Each structure stands twice: as C-alpha cells, then as structure tokens.
Amino acid sequence: MIFYLTALIQGLCLSAMGLGIFITMKIFRIPDITTDGSYTLGAAVTAALLMQGWPLLPVVGVTILAGALAGVLTGLVHTRLKIDALLAGILVMTGLYSVNLSILGRSNIPLINIDTVFSALAIFDRPLYNELWVSLLFLGVLSALLAYMLRTDFGIAMRATGNSESMTRAMGINNDRMKITGLAIANALTALSGFLAAQYQNFTDINMGIGIVLVGLGSVLIGDALINWLGIRHIWLQLLFVMLGCILFQLVLAVALSLGVNPNMLKLITSVCVLAIVAIPRLARRQRS
Amino acid sequence: MIKLDHITKVFNRGEVNEVNALNDVSLQIAQGEFVVLVGANGSGKTTLLNIISGAVLPSEGSVLLHGEEVSRLPEHKRSRWVARVFQNPLAGTAPELSILDNFRLAALRTQRKKLKIGIDGAFKASVREKIAGLGLGLEDKLPQPMGTLSGGQRQALTLLMSVMDHTDILLLDEPTAALDPKSAEVVLQTAERLIREYQLTTVLITHNLRETQRFGSRLIQMNRGRIARDLDGAAKEKLELEEMYSWFG
Predict the structure, then answer these.
(1) Under an 8 A CB cutoff, do A160 and B102 touch?
(2) Which residue of A145, A152, A164 is the best one to mutate when testing the B interface, meaning the one whose CB has the most B CBs within 10 A?
C-alpha cells in the first residue's frame, strides 16, 4: 500500500510538469524539450536556496521566475531567431545543464534536516500522509489557478494561438509574444515540479531531469486519451485528467518495479510505455479504417 | 480609406525562385467603397490583399489606412482596422475552441485580452442574437467546437465575427471558393448584408465572374502584378460576361 501511495505522491509531484507539457504540447503544439533542464533548474534553485536558509515562499517565487526565464529563452530563440522549437528547446536544455551545475556547486545536494514544504504544512503524524496532503493542496491550487487563467480572455487567446495562427493574427494577437508567454508558464510549472520533487526525495541531483520530458509526455498522452475518450470539454476537468495521467504513469512504473523489474531498466520501461501509449491508438485507428 | 502608393513586392529577391508579385501598384479605395478584384492565378490579387492586411510587407512603396502610414505595421496590429475572411474556412476560426470563445476573441479584436473572464450572460445573449440573424440554427450551439461546423457555416460565422468589433475594412479572399453553391449563397448574402449594414470598405477577390457582376461598386483586374483595368460602377454595370472572359485570354 505504502509503495503505491509513494507512486501516487510522485505522480502528484510530477503533475505540475504534466500541466506545463499540456500547455506546450496540446495548447501550443510546440515540442518543448526545455523541460529536462527546467525541471532540474527548479530543483537546483530550491535546494540551493533552502540550504542557505531562505523561507519557503521566496523560494517558490524564485523557482517560478527561474523556470519562466528558461521558457522565455526557448521562446525567444524560437520566435525571434526563427529556429525550430525542438532545436530551441534542446539548445536551452543543454545550456541549462551548466547553469544547474553552477547553482548546485556540485553534482548533488542532500536536503537533510531542512524545513521543507511538506514539514512546514504538516497536519498528520505520518510524513507520508503529509506528503500526500501537501502535494494534493499544491496541485489543487495550481490547477485551479491555471484553469481560471485558461478561461479568461487572455487564456482564450492563448488556446486559440495554438489552434489557428492565421485566425489569432487577424484577431490582433501577437502570436510570437503569446508563444513566449506560454513557454514561460509551462517551464515555470515544470520548475515547480522540480521544487516539489527535490523536497519530496530530500535531494537534488544534476541528472534528475534527464528523460523527464518523456515521463511528462507519456503522462499527458494518457490524460489526453482519457479526455478524448470521455469527451471532456471543461478546461479544469481536462487539467485534472492530465494530472491523473501523471499519477497513472507513475503507478504503471511502480507496478513494473513491484513485478521485479531491474530499476536500471526504468528508463527503458518509460520509453516503451510512452511508445505503447503513442502507438496503440494509432494502430487501433489504422485497424478500424 | 485605403491608399497604396507605388507598391512593389518581390519574393525571394536575388534567389533563383525570385517572383515579382506586385510591380509599382498604386491604388486608392474610398471609405465605404466595395472593390471586386479579379485576375488570373498569379496575377498578384492575394499579394495585394496581404499587403493591405499586413500579412506580407511591401518591398517598396507605402500603405496608408485612414491616412496613417502602416507599411511596416504587422498584421496583428492592423487588425484594429482590418478584418479578413480567408479562402480556407478553417483559417478564419479556431476549430477546437467553442463558437462562443471564437466570438469572444472577435469582440476583443482591437482590445487587450485581459486576465478576466469576459464571457457572461449578457455576452452570450448578444452573440446568440447575432448568430440567430444568420438563420442557420447555430444560436443554440454556442458551446460546440467551431471545428464541428461545415465550411459554409464557419465562413458565415467568420463574416459575423469580423463585425464584432470596430473594424471598417473587410478583406474577402475568395470566401466561397471552397463551398458548395448553397453554402456559398448563404455566405454571400451574409456578406452583402453586413457590408451594407456596417458600411464597410470592402475588397473581394473572386474567380466567379457572376459574383463580379453581382457585387461591388468598382472592378479591378490584375495582370502580372499590375492593375490592368480599373472600372467604376457605371462601367462595371455595362460589362458582359463574355467580355470579362476575354480578359483571361
């Protein structure tokens, strides 16, 4: 039970990243690889500042700003220099590795005997329950804010930009600026995942973000499959299903591990899972047609 | 008023695929005038429309809208004056957004899109009333995604969206080319009504010579990037279909 509860909390920690990938992939249709770097960036900033004794609230603020800056950089490279979004993301992600290493000062920082968001908001005796409730609270607030934003006039403009650029230009929307803003929000969310993950696992490692975009992608695809299957149109429900996708993905990995799969094979299993999520619906469609 | 002054547009200048799309074109369209633009494929009609909307910036020459120099102003900034209906019904609307969301954006064409929820009961009622005027039965389908509608329905709604905010120039780029005759008629009737009602300055590109006869107070024929003929309403009235066909020799 505890094993699956742990997977559930991990899924919740990664849900902010899932929401970020939902924005880039499903709303803007931009394949943003910056995620690998901005996830570690969020964790690195969190670890470095908590070690220096910063209170949690400013740490959240700086983490959001750092992630947003990474997104803005990718956005500027993509829109101003007209470089393909995929390459722009790879460039920024690669650069962020050195930035993260500079922030950390070494390859990893353990967060032992430090007040974390989980201990600061603790209401239960058992740490596991606190981790669950704090992640639920954090993601609840985050998804509610995001859902509100996407329903505002600005949010409608944002959703339309990824849908029909010719239409949005004709509606007075600066598509480039909107993409930069979207990438900033998405990477700020990803950095927040790093913020939660670092405190949940009590350490930050320079390599913790490698391949994380694939986990996010798989999670969003699971969520998206459910959204389409159930015909969900309400934006907040869509965000909830994206988060559910993140949790389900972690549970699948947990099941694989509980079946005795070598943990060294985890990245391979992740790739195979994402491949299956992408390929199976396509094969099913081809079969039907 | 639209004023194009010695506009030249060269695509891929200096490359093997260099194209002279427009060659020293000067044109003045008065407020409320309805210009029909005809010409063979590649004659520069769409480039001319793109130059007015800002989708394409001129290589030389200047563009003035209501006396304001806008030659280097990008398309999204010109949208405060210019509304556009594309040839492709898919291009003028956001298919995954609801009809209501599409209309909300149209209502804010010239305004900032703020972080507040602007769709309220009053807005829904006003959109419902406007859409009901089309007679297409779409007024009860406001939450439906735009992509579920037919091409004709989408073009009619795009036209209606173009007058949701204070726009006074309407560019119609073969708006019925992708539609069946019945849908095309609905779109044309809607266009005719809105142009008259809102006294829009309109430029219509069409390959349909019957539409050329039916619409507009002025007819311009483009040929090889230049204006070959510019006929006023009286001259246009006298034109026979056969004569127009002969232009395309």
Answers:
(1) yes
(2) A164
Residue B90 is part of which domain span?
Answer: 2-247
The C-alpha atoms of residue A159 and residue A42 are separated, in whole angstroms, by: 26
A172 vs B77: CB contact, 8 Å cut-off? yes
Residue B102, chain A, CB below 8 Å: the answer is yes
Q: How many CB pairs under 8 A join A and B?
A: 96
Please list the pLDDT of chain A residue by residue as tens digits (289 residues): 788 899 999 999 999 999 999 999 999 999 999 999 999 999 999 999 999 999 999 999 999 999 999 999 999 999 999 999 999 999 999 999 999 999 999 999 999 999 999 999 999 999 999 999 999 999 999 999 999 999 999 999 999 999 999 999 999 999 999 999 999 999 999 999 999 999 999 999 999 999 999 999 999 999 998 898 888 988 999 999 999 999 999 998 888 888 888 888 888 888 888 888 888 878 888 888 7
**What percent of chain B has pLDDT above 90?**
73
User: What's the CA angle centered on A30, arms A24 and A36, to 5 degrees?
Assistant: 65
Closest by Cβ to B117, choosing from A152, A159, A167: A152
**Nearest-CA neighbor of A165 among B95, B72, B108, B98?**
B95
Across the interface, whether the CB atoms of B80 and A172 are under 8 A apart is answered yes
Please write down the HEC assignment for all residues of A160-183. Answer: HHHHCHHHHHHCCCCHHHHHHHHH
**How many angstroms separate the CA atoms of B5 and B23, rounded?**
11
Structure token pair of residue A251: 């549970």
A229's CB contacts (< 8 A; 6+ apart) are: none
Q: Of B55, B98, B104, which has the smallest distance from its Cβ to A153's Cβ?
A: B104
B207 and B87 Cβ atoms separated by less than 8 Å: no
Q: From the list B55, B79, B108, which residue is nearest A153 (CB)?
A: B108
Q: What's the CA gap between B47 and B42, in Å, rounded? A: 9
In angstroms, the separation between the Cα of residue A169 and the nearest Cα of chain B is 5
Contact B117 A157 (CB under 8 A): no
Contact call for residues A115 and A59 (beta carbons, < 8 A)? no
Provide the domain count of chain B: 1
Closest residue of chain A to B80, computed from CA coordinates: A172
In angstroms, the CA B241 to CA B248 distance is: 12
d(CA A270, CA A68): 27
Q: What distance separates the 2 farthest-apart alpha carbons in chain A?
A: 60
State the CATH number of the domain containing residue B160.
Answer: 3.40.50.300
Residue A148 forms contact with B (CB below 8 Å): yes
- CATH number belonging to domain A2-288: 1.10.3470
